[in-house]
Amino acid sequence: MSRAGGSARVQVEGVHKSFDLDGRSTPALLDVSLEIHAGELLCLLGPSGCGKSTLLNIVAGFLPPTRGRVLVGGAPVTGPGPERGVVFQEYVLFPWLTVAQNVEFGPRLMGKPAAGCREITARYLEMVGLTAHASKFPAQLSGGMKQRVAIARALANDPAIVLMDEPFGALDAQTREVMQEELSRIQRVEHKTIVFVTHSIREAVYLADRVVVMTSAPGRIKEIFTIKLPEPRDRFAPEFTQYEREITRLVKEEVMKVHE
Ligand SMILES: Nc1ncnc2c1ncn2[C@@H]1O[C@H](COP(=O)(O)OP(=O)(O)OP(=O)(O)O)[C@@H](O)[C@H]1O
Ligand SMILES: [Mg+2]
Questions:
Q1: Cα–Cα distance between 219 and 212 in angstroms, integer?
Q2: Burial 61-75 (b: 16+ CB within 10 A, else e)
């Protein structure tokens, strides 16, 4: 199968975003500049309301920045595009389609021949461990299974970039760890550029090549950590705990500011 999508670099250049609240312009993001390397999994962490989803939505092309710009693979973002896949916390699946039909939807829409669509669907259903559930409907699945379908569906379009906004936020702790392990394994095969928003510091340290800690609102970049741990990562390793401790301290500093 061709792997046309590959991965791509994302450049966020001097992005500001303000929203109008009761006629007043309120800043949500202040001068965010960030380069996300091709094939990198980057986690965004920060207090609630600091602008993580806003930044992700700007990269996705769902929201325009007030100032600044985003480049994907060197080209300015002017709206959503097929090279950017998104996975949200709520499982946005088509309830009237089966698991396989949900995954096949994108490739079909792009006009891929039926045999190619079936091959892609089989590949990604296997990757997320849902081959045996291909003909079920979303309502018949658990939360973890639905989110696996959402991931398979995003990957089936062969995007260069996958934008994930708290994709495991609604899952129980055990399912969440299993999903993290699966995503990490998939990423070691697919090497997509992934921007992953989370509130969980453990999740970020487990998954990320780099972790970006944002300040409390309006969001700026506070610090960037490179996680130099071998994969698959050992959540109980002392080095893992050390990263967790350092990042927790920084995030807490910002969360405390919100409550001052
Ligand atoms: N469409 C919108 N219109 C007006 N204000 C908005 C809009 N979207 C976001 N905001 C505001 O921008 C700020 C950042 O919101 P955003 O959802 O990006 O935060 P977040 O970091 O994702 O928070 P959380 O961790 O709770 O998901 C908040 O003050 C929010 O109220
Ligand atoms: Mg959010």
A1: 11
A2: bebebeebebebeee
Give dist(CA 116, CA 122) in Å, integer.
10
> Which residue matches tokens 């199968």?
1
pLDDT at 1 over 70: no
Eight-state DSSP code of residue 219: B
CA angle 81, 84, 88 (to 5 degrees): 115
From the CB of 217, is ligand 1 less than 6 Å away?
yes
For ligand 1, say whether the CB of 28 is within 6 Å of any of its atoms: yes
Does the beta carbon of 17 sit less than 6 angstroms from any atom of ligand 1? no
Residue spans per domain, the chain: 93-158
In angstroms, what is the C-alpha Rg of the chain?
18
For residue 54 and ligand 1, the question of a CB distance below 6 A is answered with: yes
- Entry pTM: 0.94
Report how far ligand 2's centroid is from the alpha carbon of 248 (Å): 18
**pLDDT score of 258 more than 90:** no
Ligand lying nearest the CA atom of residue 21? 1
The tens digit of pLDDT for each residue in 99-147 reads 999 999 999 999 999 999 999 999 999 988 999 999 999 999 999 999 9
